[in-house]
Design goal:
The chain has 218 residues and is an alpha+beta fold. Strands 1, 2, 3, 4, 5 and 6 form a 6-stranded mixed β-sheet that branches. It is elongated, with a radius of gyration of 20 Å.
Length: 218
């Protein structure tokens, strides 16, 4: 299962899918083929839903509590597809989920539902609907991991264009941390990190107010 984070310029969002004819909402996920590497399976699922391949992607937790075993959920999904249980009995068994989170620029993506889904769209991270199984728990764990990694991973690298202003970067941090940051303190901290390269100014208005553009050091 993948928690795919996208940034709208103001808010952090998560990609959610709706199973066909059920109203059930879930994180994008899938199964690993017998001859497929785990990481390759995750990248395949991400590419199918977003069209992207070169993105930040990290495994963060494995979910296997007995409470997530709810075969009636999969029965409902199969029934909605007019599938009988023959050949699909394994879907009704217990399985665990290796969870990943991805960071992408929302403007680079047109979400695509798969053959099991009616829709695939963005939801505000602070206003998520009820998801199947333990998927809300997976999202909460992903948010905790993202927040703890934000400084040394510099999460904005995949949530922003290749060149961005300091204000845009600050908005990413504020959306992830869910708090307002002091502009001067934030700027000093980021510049002192040595992870940014400064470029020309972004002239869109008065020259004396034009902000510098930045990119992350390779």
């Amino acid at each position: 299962d993948s928690v795919i984070f996208g940034f709208s310029g103001e808010k952090l969002k998560i990609l959610i899918m709706e199973y066909r004819n059920t109203g059930l909402l879930a994180l994008p996920g899938g199964f690993v083929g017998h001859q497929e590497n785990l990481n390759d399976a995750v990248k395949r699922g991400l590419s199918e839903r977003t069209g992207l391949s070169d993105v930040f992607l990290e495994q963060f937790y494995t979910f296997g509590n007995i409470e997530r075993y709810q075969p009636e959920v999969m029965e409902r999904i199969l029934k909605a597809r007019n599938e009988n249980h023959e050949g699909y009995a394994w879907l009704l068994d217990r399985y665990i989920s290796v969870a990943y989170y991805a960071l992408i620029n929302l403007n680079d993506v047109t979400p695509k539902p798969d053959h099991l889904s009616d829709s695939c769209g963005w939801y505000d991270v602070d206003n998520l609907p009820a998801l199947i199984l333990d998927h809300n728990m997976i999202v909460n764990k992903a948010m905790t991991t993202l927040r703890s990694n934000i400084d040394h991973k510099l999460a904005g690298v995949n949530l922003l264009p290749s060149r961005f202003t300091m204000k845009e970067l600050q908005k990413v941090y504020e959306a992830i941390l869910n708090e307002k940051l002091h502009r001067g303190t934030f700027q000093r901290k980021i510049l002192a990190s040595g992870l940014l390269k400064r470029h020309e100014k972004q002239y869109t208005g008065a020259a004396n107010k034009a902000p510098f553009l930045y990119s992350f050091v390779d």
